[in-house]
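Ticket opened by: R.M.
Priority: normal
Category: complex prediction / small molecule

The reporter submitted a protein together with N,N-dimethyl-L-histidine and asked that the result be attached to this ticket for the collaborator who will pick it up next week. Submitted input follows.
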Amino acid sequence: MTDFDPAFRADVLAGLATPIKAIPARWFYDLRGSELFEAITQAPEYYPTRVEAALLSRVAAEIAALTGPGRAVVEFGSGSSAKTPLLLRAVAPAAYVPIDISGDFLRQSAHALGTDFPWLNVIPVEADFMVGVTLPPTVADMPKLGFFPGSTIGNMVAATAVDLLRSFKATLGVGAQLLIGVDRIKDAGVLTAAYNDAGGVTADFNMNLLHRINAELGGNIPVDAFRHRAIWNDRMSRIEMHLEAVRAVDFSVDGRAFAMAAGETIHTENSHKYGLRDARLLLRAGGWGLLAEWTDADGQFAILLAEAEAPRFAP
Ligand code: AVI
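Result attached by the on-call engineer:
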């Protein structure tokens, strides 16, 4: 057993012990999982990354006109993608604050950005943005622009998504702006293909969780007894990823015994998709008023700009 995170152990043991087995999606992202996710974004079927980047590049000047220059751009997650440079080039910020729980990854991408943007004050913050963050004092008096691309908000159920939006508001303050990417509800065939790419990268990403459990938590899960499943749950407006046992299987993790019947699954991820008005409602529920909204020509993906509203005592 290599070094392990006690929170990973707790989530896996609790998640496998419940009648409907589930493990939170955040445990996908060890080094191998992060590499596989990067590979997913290159898969022809996985449209969100490409469509969002193209949309951002098309509307960057409009965004800049609404944000104005001189803001502190606060990115929730570290900007490893092509989207961050696109935004930074357009809005001419006074500082860039990427926030990520993975310190190594954060420092790497902050360093890379520093090379491309030598004039920019880059201040990485190693923290879990799910629980509220204190920003560095240097940016305290600057107007803020939060950035949360990739439809990562979709990986949360609505109640958690609203909590997160509220916590963004607490971090950034009333009057701050937030630029957020949200994947839209669309043809179920397009959605399921995006999470079942023919190259099998998404399957590897999902199955990597079992390898991780075996390596880090002393598991003996027979990985070949599982298969990747990604299905569209229309009632919940989400893609669900599962690891399905293809035969009855017994295994142990950290000395605890588990059994699964053939066809039983471990639920590993939700990726919620939103209609036009759904995304606006989500923002409003989190205390953010819509300023502007853009979608690609096919309505696949939306980018929304919102402002943190002052509390109101009347309707
Ligand atoms: C990170 N997140 C927005 C991705 C998504 O589409 O929900 C994660 C992912 N899972 C499978 N493919 C991509």
